[in-house]
Amino acid sequence: MRSAADSAPGADPDAAPRLPKQARLRCKPEFDRVFQNGRKVVDRHLVAWILPLAHTSGPSRIGLVVSRKVGNAVVRNRTKRLLREAFRHLAPGIPHPVEIVIVPRPAGLPTKATEARSSLRHLLSVYARGPRRKGGSPRTPARPEPPGDGRG
Fold first, then answer.
1. What is d(CA 60, CA 23) in angstroms, rounded to the nearest whole number?
2. 30: how many CB neighbours lie within 10 A of its CB?
3. Does this model's pTM top 0.85?
4. Of 7, 77, 88, 130, which residue is most buried, by most CB within 10 angstroms?
C-alpha cells in the first residue's frame, strides 16, 4: 500500500533525501552570528565562515549566500543544490558540530557535485588544522618603541 507522500504530485521515490531544516541556517541573526564570530576560510571555489557550535548535541548547520554576480536564478539555484548536497554527504564526518556560511566565488564556481564536495572537504580540513600564523614566530612590533615617553 502506498502512503500519501508517495502519491503526492512531484514526489519522486528515487530522489535523494533532502537536507533537513534543522541542518540549515535560516534567519539573518544566525548568519550574522557566523559572519561576526566565525573563522574565514578561503578556497578557489568558495569562501566560508565556520563557527564551532557551543552545544555539541545538535547537527552541523549550513547557510548559503549566493549573489547575483554568480549568474541568473537557474545558475544560483543549481549552485545552492550542489553545495547543499555536498554538505549533506560530508556532515556526518565532521567531528565537532559547526555552523558554516558558504559564499561561492563567481569566477571559480563549482559546476559538478564532485567539485563542490572536494572544495567543501578542503575548507573543512583547512579549518580543522587551526589558524595559520605567518612566519611561525610570536608577533613583534615592526619598529621598536623609542626610549622615553615619546614627547620628543
1. 6
2. 16
3. no
4. 88
Nearest to 62 by CA among 39, 80, 44: 80
The pLDDT of residue 119 is above 70: yes
Q: Comparing C-alpha atoms, which of 72, 118, 123 is closest to residue 102?
A: 123
CA angle 15, 59, 35 (to 5 degrees): 105
Residue 109 banded pLDDT, cuts 50, 70, 90: confident
CB 103 within 8 A of CB 119: no
Instruction: Delineate the domains of the chain, giving CATH numbers in brackets.
Output: 21-125 (3.30.230.10)
At residue 146, what are phi and psi to the nearest 5 degrees? -70, 150
